[in-house]
Design a protein that fits this description.
By secondary structure, the chain is of the alpha/beta class. The chain is 40% helix and 22% strand. The structure holds 3-isopropylmalic acid (IPM) and manganese (II) ion (MN). 3-isopropylmalic acid binds next to helix 4.
Length: 351
């Protein structure tokens, strides 16, 4: 029995979560596993009504689940930052989901803006550190609002935090067993302290994984290579902010936000799976948003829950669905949100 907490969230979150749950139900039916989904209403509406984002008591409750399935967080009537920090980042931090795992995979039939690149070229995974760096909120103002104002935003990198992320990346590369190649993405030519720790930890950890070849690339160069030679990459490990930035670029080359999913992983605790696009408020309620990213999040969740056959079937469902759509982009998919969900669910069910 898998106990799954579901946070549909804001905007189009509930619409894509509904399709993800449809596919989950189909997978359970076909592969004979049991699950229970418990829904939570954290998000913009609840915040506007109660002032609550993600209360501490809820964090404790979430710890008792086997996984969390999240739709999207972000509401046009709430000042930017409140919900992102109060819900999404709070969950990542409080549940110590120290890995943000973001596969960048171009499925057959999906259009990529990269001319001459296909599914064989675009298939790598970014392991993003998810609890440290610039995201910890360390810093402050001096003389705020005056001409002498000082704003400090510090990047906090601990040996423990960096090492557990790098070890996870090595182990993931080994398990993935594709090219057995791990690239550290950093900025050692400028960030003398944080990136020095990352590079030293990477080099000191590498000998424990003799089967994995390693290399290093600066984050700006990685952006160039994602466009020019994405086939060079197998697994990339990087800090929180660089991982945030390069995975948006990664999402675009795999066909867009409509198809990109990620997992906020605590290997020793409860993990949270999400489509990585936002709440897309202007499309809310129109049944036009692409649910495949949410369905891909379900695939990752099933894999994580040990339901690997079900996960593989969901991936096949996604692959078939993408081949049946002219585009992944809103307005050009030729099918509605629920039709795509139905199509993927039917494929998972094997009909
Ligand atoms: C992401 C998002 C978040 C992040 C925001 C919403 C705080 O961009 O999941 O990549 O920066 O991590
Ligand atoms: Mn982001």
């Amino acid at each position: 029995m898998h106990n799954i907490a579901v946070i549909p969230g804001d905007g189009t979150g509930p619409e894509v979560v509904r399709e993800g749950l449809k596919v989950l139900a189909a997978a359970a039916e076909r592969f004979g596993f049991q699950y229970e989904a418990t829904e939570y209403d954290f998000g913009g509406e609840r915040y506007l009504k109660t002032g609550e984002t993600l209360p501490d008591a809820a964090v404790d409750e979430l710890k008792s689940f086997d996984a969390i399935f999240l739709g999207a967080i972000g509401h046009p009537d709430v000042k930017p930052g409140i919900l992102e920090q109060g819900i999404l980042l709070k969950a990542r931090f409080a549940l110590d989901q120290y890995i943000n795992l973001r596969p960048v995979k171009l499925y057959p039939g999906v259009e990529t803006p990269l001319r001459d690149k296909g599914p064989d070229d675009i298939d790598f995974v970014v392991v993003r550190e998810n609890t440290e760096g610039l995201y910890v909120g360390s810093g402050g103002f001096l003389k705020k609002g005056t001409p002498d104002e000082v704003a400090i935003q510090e990047s906090i990198n601990t040996r423990k935090g960096v090492e557990r992320c790098i070890r996870y990346a090595f182990e993931y590369t080994q398990k993935r067993n594709k090219d057995n190649k791990l690239t550290l993405c950093g900025k050692t030519n400028v960030l003398n302290y944080s990136q020095d720790l990352w590079l030293r930890t990477f080099n000191e950890t590498a000998p424990d994984y003799p089967g994995i070849s390693t290399n290093y690339a600066h984050v700006d160069a990685i952006c160039m290579w994602f466009v020019k030679n994405p086939e060079w990459f197998d697994v990339i490990v990087t800090d929180n902010i660089f991982g945030d930035i390069i995975t948006d670029l990664g999402a675009m080359i795999q066909g867009g936000m409509g198809i990109a999913a990620g997992g906020n992983i605590n290997p020793e605790g409860v993990s949270m799976f999400e489509p990585i696009g936002g709440s897309a408020p202007k499309y809310t309620g129109q049944n036009v948003i692409n649910p495949l990213a949410a369905i891909a999040a379900v695939q990752m969740m099933l894999d994580f829950l040990g339901e690997s056959d079900a996960a593989a079937a969901v991936e096949t469902g996604i692959t078939h669905a993408t081949q049946g759509l002219p585009s992944m982009a809103v307005g050009r998919m030729g099918k509605s949100t629920s039709e795509i969900g139905d199509m993927a669910a039917a494929l998972v069910r094997g009909s």
